[in-house]
Automatic annotation (TrEMBL):
One of its GO terms (molecular function) is isomerase activity. The keyword Disulfide bond does not apply. It comes from the Bacteria. This is Ribose-5-phosphate isomerase A. Catalyzes the reversible conversion of ribose-5-phosphate to ribulose 5-phosphate. It is an enzyme of class 5 (isomerase). Belongs to the ribose 5-phosphate isomerase family. Substrate binds at residues 33-36, 88-91, 102-105, 129. It comes from Neokomagataea tanensis NBRC 106556.
Length: 234
């Protein structure tokens, strides 16, 4: 592992562990997905081993497997309609608004359901993720049904996407989400009006969900050189 990669992993772990320590005994917790969230799950597992009593709803099969391995008790929405807290990573965080882009890990639909169901949605990122405008460093992932996805891609281009590409897996096949759908990665460039774009994408037949999480975040923990900063939405 190179020095640069090692440093980023240290930052991810710092932010994740800081957020995991917000969880209190008796809480129901939403578990995010991805390379930063795995450190949060790891820390919660340590705390469970120390006596913390919680139940959790994971946002992906991968996170569910990690949670079970960590000794975290799982539950579901048939038992809990509201979560006390959800903790997840992000691909971009807009400074000030704390709007997010999520979904490069492919779990955006379940992540949004969990985030929306939580009383408190906490995001954990390293210092590469803050941006001034959404679309600055990441495409907007859009989960779509397989049938007619080519037509859906054309409608997304009409919304202003300069490139729309179906995500592929490591074997060169279409990436399939845990929900059995495709992901189209859409490059819009700098997004000046995220609310308007969200409405336009949401109106397209065939779109299941998109990776813009607007006005959903309560706070963000950002790992920096000097430590972990806590940001609240303005």
């Amino acid at each position: 592992m190179s020095g640069a990669v090692s440093e980023i992993e240290i930052y991810k772990r710092m932010a994740a562990r800081r957020a995991a320590d917000l969880v209190e005994d008796g809480m129901t917790v939403g578990l995010g997905t991805g390379s930063t969230a795995k450190y949060m799950i790891e820390r919660l597992g340590e705390r469970v081993a120390e006596g913390l009593c919680i139940e959790a709803i994971p946002t992906s099969i991968d996170s569910a497997e990690k949670a079970v391995k960590a000794g975290i008790k799982l539950t579901d929405f048939s038992q809990h309609r509201v979560l006390d807290i959800a903790i997840d990573g992000a691909d971009e965080v807009q400074r000030g608004t704390l709007h997010l882009v999520k979904g490069l890990g492919g779990a955006l639909l379940r992540e949004k359901i969990v985030a929306q169901s939580a009383k408190r949605f906490v995001v954990i990122v390293d210092n590469r993720k803050p941006v001034d405008h959404l679309g600055e460093r990441a495409p907007i992932p859009v989960e779509v049904v397989f049938f007619g996805w080519e037509c859906t891609a054309e409608r997304l281009k009409e919304c202003g996407a300069v490139a729309v590409k179906p995500r592929m897996d490591s074997h060169g096949h279409h990436f399939i989400t845990d929900n059995g759908n495709l992901i189209l990665d859409c490059v819009f460039g700098l997004i000046e009006d995220a609310e308007k774009l969200q409405q336009r994408i949401g109106s397209i037949v065939g779109v299941v969900e998109h990776g813009m999480f607007l006005s959903m975040t309560n706070e963000v923990f950002v790992a920096m050189d000097h430590g972990v900063e806590r940001w609240e939405r303005k």
